[in-house]
Each structure stands twice: as C-alpha cells, then as structure tokens.
Amino acid sequence: MSLKLYHTSDVHIGMRFMHYPQDVQEALIEARFTVLETMVSQADQAGCQLFVVAGDLFEKQNVSRRDVLRTRQILSGFGGTVCLLPGNHDYISESSELWKVFAEGMPDNMIILGEEGPVELEEGDARIIFWPAPCHTKHSQENNLGWLAGRTPDQGTFTIGVAHGALEGLSPDGDGRYFSMSVGELSGIPADLWLLGHTHLPWPAESSVRDHRIFNAGTPEPDGMDCRHEGGAWVIDIDDNRRVQAKRVSTGQYRFADREETVRSQEDLDRIRENVLGQNPEKTLTRLSLSGYVDEELYGQRQAFIRELAEATVYLDVRDEDLRVRFTPERIRQEFSEGSLPAILLAELMDTHGEDTAHLAYEIIREVKHDAN
C-alpha cells in the first residue's frame, strides 16, 4: 500500500490586481486559472491519486458564480480525488454562499473538507483518513486543531492532516489573528502527513526532502512584489512503511522582481539593463528603485533608459527620486557666490561628510531660500 498526492494552496481565484494597468490586471487574473490547469496536468502526469488544496482556493467570499464554476470544471479534469479545505479567505459557514455554489452538481471525485471530523476514502489499495482543520471565519486567535486531541490513527490507513493558518517561524502573525499553529503542536498529533496552507512561502525550503511530515504549499502563482519565488507545489509519496519523499515542482507563469540599484556610471545602467531584460521580461513585473549620484549628462539619459525597459517588460514601476546629479564644487560655484556662507558650508560638508550630507544641506538651503522669496 502506497500513496502519491499533489499538495497546493493559496491559488486565490478572484484576486483582482486593481493597482495594475487593465491589460496586466487581466493577464494576472487569467494566470490563476492557467496555473490550476497546469497543476492538474502535473498531478496526473506524476500519477497522483489525490489533489489536495489546503485552503484559499478562492480570494474572497463573493467570487463570481462564473469563476467558481470555471474553477470546478478545471479541477474536475483530475484523474483522482480532489480534496478542498476552506481557508481563511474562502472560509465555510452557514451564511456563506461560496461553497454552496461550488457543491451544486459537484463531481463525485471532489470532497470539501468543511467540517472538523474524520473523512475516509479509498484510492486503489490505499485507505486514507483525512483530519481536516477548516476555517469558518476570516480571523481567529485559535486554530481548529482542538478536535484532534487524543486521537490516534486507525491501523491500515494513511492519516493526513490538512490545516490552514500561520505556521510559527514561517508566517508573520504578530496579533495572533490567523489560526496560528506550531511545528511542535502539529508534530504532537500522530498524522502521517500535515498539509498546510496560508503562508505564501513553501516549507520546507529545500526542493526535495525525505522523512519530513509537515509541508506548506506556498502560492503556486506569484501575486506581488513580496513574492520572490517562482510559484510551486509539492508532489509527495508515502511508501508501504510510511516513509515520505517529496519533490517541489515549479508551477508559476509570472514573476515579480523588486530591485534596488545604485547608479554611479554608464556601466551601472548597462548592468541593470542586462539584469532586467535577461530574465524573461515579458513575464516579469519589475519595480526598480534607483539611487546614487551621476553626472548631468547621464542623469539626462535616464528617461530614455526607463522607456527602453518599459517597452520590453510586461510591467515596470521605476522610482528614481533618489537618483541625483552629482554634487561637485563646480555646481556649488554655479549656484552660490564665492565666499558666501552657503558656498563655504556646502564645500566643507562635501570635504568632510560626502555627497549625501552636502545634498541634504543643499535641499534645506534651497527650501529656506524659496520660503524667503
């Protein structure tokens, strides 16, 4: 008796990306359906018997009926059993309609793990019992693992815990609002596997592991500048002796790059250009923060440089307010009369404290001068 499963979470179907231009917004929305199709195909090709979504398949409670049914249709293409845990964004409750819509006419190969209680099924010669900890609200200072206290696995089964919430040490939850749980707490519950969602980072961090029992899927399609990985999911094998082997598979289509670059010369601009354009720019959303001091000629070329990058990338947000014309003694002489207090002060600051301090003083002097006029 062995078992192979595919573990994902945090797809967030229904995320709108409103702060991006419309064409980019539409592409990112569609990418969440595309990644679901990709994952179903990967799971089938790997011979997985189970496809487990550990929460936040959907972004919110009021996802359109069209998108809910489209999501269900994609998942129905999986050759095994699809197991869906409601997370804190797509929580299940008496008043929410989301999962009621999903369940209408739901195919036989799908299970919604919407209640605390064991769920048993068979796949081939494998008998499986799920221990789910679904979310019934968006926020909670307590997780939903309490019903598992003292519970022991049945003989001859694979026991799989599925939960959604912040994992201590991986997911920030300073206010304790996101169903927080710890590795120690999960390890104390005798499941063969724990499949988690909520944190958009994968855990463990390695791409291939053995004899690990706790997995966090991470988001399969990157969704913002704070998402530095490529998106992925876990393919997990459990053998006859309950030994676990897991491999991370890449799933995402788009990438986000948040770059902070210091510019001092043309060589720096050439390096930045090569880095931005060398990493699949038509699928990479880039935020580029430029800082430093350059000569006046190079400073004047920055707009052409930015236009070149913008034309080659799917999305570019450049922040260049900290890129300045190099502050030189010649510039001091141009703006202030020789021997004046500002000229003496700025020259002294340049010599003793460098360009940053001199520029700060320069801006203060200009502001005072402007107010006086």
Briefly summarize what is shown.
With 373 residues, the chain is an alpha/beta fold. The chain has helices at 22-45, 65-75, 98-103, 183-187, 266-277, 296-300, 302-312, 329-335, 341-353, 355-372; strands spanning 3-8, 50-53, 81-84, 110-112, 119-123, 126-133, 158-164, 193-197, 208-210, 214-216, 232-238, 244-250, 255-262, 284-294, 315-325. The strands form three sheets. The protein has a seven-stranded mixed beta sheet, covered by helices on one side.
Question: What labels describe this entry?
Answer:
373 residues, alpha/beta, Purple Acid Phosphatase, chain A, domain 2, 2 domains, seven-stranded mixed sheet, five-stranded mixed sheet, 15 strands, 30% helix, elongated
Could you give the topology of this structure?
Blueprint: E1 3-8, H1 22-45, E2 50-53, H2 65-75, E3 81-84, H3 98-103, E4 110-112, E5 119-123, E6 126-133, E7 158-164, H4 183-187, E8 193-197, E9 208-210, E10 214-216, E11 232-238, E12 244-250, E13 255-262, H5 266-277, E14 284-294, H6 296-300, H7 302-312, E15 315-325, H8 329-335, H9 341-353, H10 355-372
Parallel strand pairs: 1-2, 2-3, 3-4, 6-7, 7-8, 8-10, 13-14, 14-15
Antiparallel strand pairs: 1-11, 5-6, 9-12, 11-12
Helix pairs in contact: 1-2, 8-9, 9-10
Description:
This protein is α/β, with parallel strands linked by helices and 373 residues long. The chain folds into two domains: 3-250, Purple Acid Phosphatase, chain A, domain 2 (4-Layer Sandwich); 255-372. Helix content is 30%, strand content 25%. It is built from ten helices and 15 strands. The strands form three sheets. The protein has a seven-stranded mixed beta sheet with strand order 4-3-2-1-11-12-9, covered by helices on one side. Helix 1 packs parallel to helix 2, helix 8 (329-335) runs antiparallel to helix 9 and helix 9 runs antiparallel to helix 10. The protein is elongated, with a radius of gyration of 27 Å. 34% of the residues are buried. The mean pLDDT is 93.
